[in-house]
Design a protein that fits this description.
six-stranded parallel beta sheet; Rossmann fold; 366 residues; 2 domains; 14 helices; 14% strand; globular
């Protein structure tokens, strides 16, 4: 039996999209493993509290892994310790830090930011070049990596993420009045966004539009505190306090209700490696208005309305179209629900396990 260790320190919704990826993948891998008639893989999580992106991570994680004596390690993020030279698989969700460079992309002092940036470049290069295999969530991310590291193309595997069952709509009419009361909302009288508030998420573009739409509120669901204060200050500076609902972290059962009752989910990102929140909104029966950036067209296909992430005008036009054209809105909802069902964590786990098996087989054949 081969032992696989997964670095699960980032598991859980408090770590946003990556946290959901790690949590959902581990859960489904355990199910996949239990279904095997002959159990060939022993999958174990490492959940130590060693902080990611830290010096302690570079020193302690290799020591912890050495004690585990794994045949293969899966790092579900690029932060592979430089001192770890055992066989490993890495998931790289995007190359955002290669593209968003400079003081506008951080809240840190300049000297700390540039030190961390240099460390990032070094760690990412180690992860890409030394890995047995690289998992990416979209062909768009694969191309970004190949553009910078052409020699690794053959070991990159595109494995799409999945949609949690809790978001899958059963086709019933909007429900959950108590949730709407909690957030002081009315059905189809608000737009919703879920995700972080990093500058590349471009959420201020929605503010540009919402301030001209008198009868629409804007709900912001965000589990991370980084840039939260800055965004709230921007809302106050514009005098939009009455129109913006700062929902913070919202559990999945409530989030599904907010999606289903929203006029639309708006995703204005300037760069995105996958775009899971939009798929979850689709699954819940919410029309999606998405930017054309990154992997979003690849993932959403013809199931979303698109706009240029630099254009206030285009975003406003799509919002008005979804609001006024009922047939168009219903078409987006139907297409979105069908589209979302194509992305499952079961499939993600199965394809990930195939990567593990391939890497272990390659080791044996050497």
């Amino acid at each position: 039996m081969k032992k696989i260790v997964i670095d699960a320190r980032l598991s859980g919704l408090k770590h946003a999209g990556i946290g959901r990826y790690v949590q959902s993948l581990v859960e489904r891998l355990e199910v996949q493993s239990s279904k095997l008639k002959v159990k060939s893989l022993d999958i174990k999580q490492v959940t130590t509290d060693v902080r990611h992106y830290s010096i302690a991570e570079q020193i302690k994680i290799p020591l912890i892994l050495k004690k585990e004596n794994p045949d293969l390690v899966h790092f579900p993020h690029f932060n592979v310790p430089l001192l770890y030279n055992g066989p490993f698989v890495v998931t790289i969700h995007d190359l955002l830090w290669h593209e968003q460079v400079g003081m506008t992309a951080t809240t840190l002092p300049a000297w700390i930011y540039w030190l961390k940036y240099l460390a990032y470049r070094l760690v990412l290069k180690h992860a890409v070049l030394k890995s047995k295999a690289i998992i990416v969530p979209s062909s768009w991310v694969k191309k970004k990596i190949v553009d910078r590291f052409p020699a690794v193309e053959k070991k990159i595997h595109v494995i799409y993420e999945g949609v949690a069952q809790s978001f899958i709509s059963d086709g019933r009419s909007a429900v959950g009045n108590e949730v709407l009361v909690k957030y002081n909302l009315q059905p189809r009288q608000y737009l919703i966004y879920t995700g972080s508030l990093y500058p590349h998420k471009n959420v201020e573009l929605i503010l540009n539009v919402v301030q001209h739409l008198i009868d629409l509120k804007f709900v912001v669901c965000c589990s991370r505190s980084i840039f939260w204060d800055k965004f709230q200050q921007e809302v106050r500076n514009r005098g939009l306090e009455e129109k913006i609902v700062f929902a913070g972290f919202v559990p999945d059962d409530e989030l599904a209700v907010l999606y289903k009752n929203a006029l639309a989910f708006v995703f204005p990102s300037k760069s995105e490696g996958f775009g899971l929140p939009g798929l979850e909104a689709m699954a819940a029966g919410c029309p999606v208005i998405s930017s054309t950036a990154g992997a979003l067209p690849e993932i959403y296909g013809d199931s979303a309305a698109y706009f240029d992430p630099k254009s206030d005008r285009e975003l406003r036009e799509e919002i008005e179209r979804v609001r006024k054209d009922k047939e168009f809105r219903e078409e987006l909802i139907k297409k979105g629900m069908v589209r979302a069902k194509k992305f499952t964590w079961e499939k993600c786990a199965r394809e990930t396990m195939e990567v593990y098996e391939s890497c272990l087989s390659l080791r044996q054949n050497k």
